[in-house]
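In response to reviewer comment 3 from the previous cycle, which asked for concrete evidence that the modeling workflow produces usable outputs, we include below a single protein chain processed end to end. The sequence was submitted unchanged, and the resulting structure tokens are shown without manual editing.
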Amino acid sequence: MTWIVAFIAAAVAFGALDALWLGWAGPNFYRPRLGDMLADSFRMAPALVFYAAYIAAIVWFAVRPGLANGLGAAALNGALLGAICYATYDLTNQATLKQWSTTVTIADICWGAFATGVAATIATFAATKFA
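The workflow returned the following structure tokens.
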């Protein structure tokens, strides 16, 4: 039951944060900097695959240590996971694409660290209190 509560809490927390971020950043931050590189419309299937895998990673790499060592461990491991995952995407794009915004890379890494750290902390708290 602990893992189900953790997964659901992480999914709700990360999903809500990312929806807020992407709702604002899509038109105001990404579109002006990335323009034609962005798809005309959102593709749900790959997004759902990403979110399912990423939430599982949050639970394994951040919530699990958080349950053993406290909320601080969840927050730290979540922030590190988020920074590394988002850096992988953005720095690979910077290395392989003709044009990729350094501003986007920096913002994405910071966002990944923040959102994943918060989601991991919330999920650890929820698993501790409700499972």
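The chain has a mean pLDDT of 97. We consider this sufficient to address the reviewer's concern, and the full set will be provided in the supplementary archive.
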